[in-house]
Amino acid sequence: MIGHVNHGKTALVRALTGIETDRLPEEKARGLSIALGFAWRDYPAGGVDFLDAPGHEDFIRAMVMGATGAHAVLLVVSATEGFGRQTREHLRIAGLLGLRRGLVAVTKADLLAEDARPSTLARIAGELDGTFLAGEPVVFCSSVTGAGLDDLHDELQALVARRLPPDPLPGAYLPLDRVFSVAGAGTVVTGTLQGGPLATGGEAVLQPSGRRVHLRQLQVHGQATDTVLPGGRVAAGLRGLSAGDVKAGEVLCAPGAYETSLLVDVELTIASDAARPLRSTDEVRVLWGARQDIARVRLIGAAAIAPGGRGLAQLRFPAPVIAHAGQRAILRRPSPAETIGGATVLDPVAPPFRTRTLEFRRDLLGAVADGRLDGIAAGLATRDGGAVSVAEVARLSRRFAGEVRDHLARTCETLDGDTVAERSAIAEAGQAYLDAVAEAHRRRPARASVALGDIRGGLARRLSLALIAHVEARLSAEGELRLQHGHVALRDHDPFAALSSTSLIRLQQIEAAFQVGGMSPPDVSALPDADAEDKGLLDLLVGSGRLVSLRNVALRQTVTFHAGALDAAVERLRVAFPPPGEFTTGEARAVLGTSRKFIVPALEFLDERGDMIRRGDVRQVATA
Q: Which architecture, in CATH terms, is 371-498?
């Protein structure tokens, strides 16, 4: 219920509902509304909550508070005075808050001559031209005589019948416009519920403070109820908190559904009659929900936005705030007080701007502002190296996660629980992975494999870790890659083919020495004719799996065995101690004719490989 001061809003609510909304002594004494008033009436088509907004210019915040969460507007215009200054400002603010439906009540019609109605209606139609109420019903009525009230009731029922569904939100979102105590009920908060249901006995979170609360009782129109659905007025009794612990302006939220932030990205609409352009670094007062906060403006892609213009911006707050994507806000200058325009929240948990990503951010927010789901997903994929969070697309696009996932499934595959990627991006990432390994092989052709960390780290400069892991697993499963002990190689990579004949002869000499050494292998540095190339050849033999390097932790030494020697050791122990026969480390050492330096790391390796089963100080050979 909006309109100029003293145009009869409160009297009209009383006439329509029988409820007196001026409840404060000061309101009764002054004869004008100061705070929001609340009333309701049930119609066959559904219930209507009336939020009686103060008409005086000093109480714009209360008017915004009432319009937030409302589905339609009942604009009240005095038949004798016509449009006043606050009539126009209220109507402009309601439009900036996203309201698109309503009707007009021309009050005090009993004081207007019958033949003056056509000209009055023409003047009102002229004022409404270009606003969201243009073409909506206009009803002449009187709260004193009751004339026209039946027609107004009919139009209200018609308005209920054509109401739009609320925007989807991730959970209950209740901006608190009143906080008070009731004997026997404790602390009570009220607001217009959005987003999702609340249930008596359930848990909620007060934001931005983050305090958890339990819902002791829920009421709608004074009647207790177990569950409240979004779309109407709610009173909630909170357990364990005093009225002083809760502030009007906080939001009662579903746990885990909303985050606080210091940075909020918005789309701005500057009023055509604003006194001057809005510039970066300007300070503004943000009125949204039941809150008002001070923010510093950082414009995106422009130094200023002229009156009547639109643009993108980031609002920077000195303390955490709570908002949701799609929420509407009113911007006012702190001094002198002036309504600058409106804002639509695009990203309520925005990242800080960086110069190198500013153009990308502008493109992403443009897609969010236009509601282009594919554009949002593409923007996030660009930002995040090909991966797209379904939850983030849902939040920015104001759609349910299931709807987003179904839409993206046409062109995307799932990487993990929440993350998807375009099939084309997966194919490109797979090829990039193969190219990176191939390049590593080209640089060091005589190496059997490449460290996984080197490949992943190089790709992570432009691809998401989730996408890298996905293509790595797929390429391994398809046999394109060989993964082993933290290293990777292409399927067809043959490091031995890159060796010279001299190196190949030396490699065969090294391998033969380890074959002969068996379970008491040599130290490579002590091999006959050892030289600097031996270390690379030894690494190649280990990388190809012909040799196995193990760590003796106690002695802080690395020992190297021929893979065949370890396989032979298993068979010798199987013969000496047929399963389920058990043996100690000393007994195994004696059978294999080796020392403790070699037997301990060898047995631990065979335990890990599954050839041995250890029980305390004894082992047995695993059955085949």
A: Orthogonal Bundle (1.10)
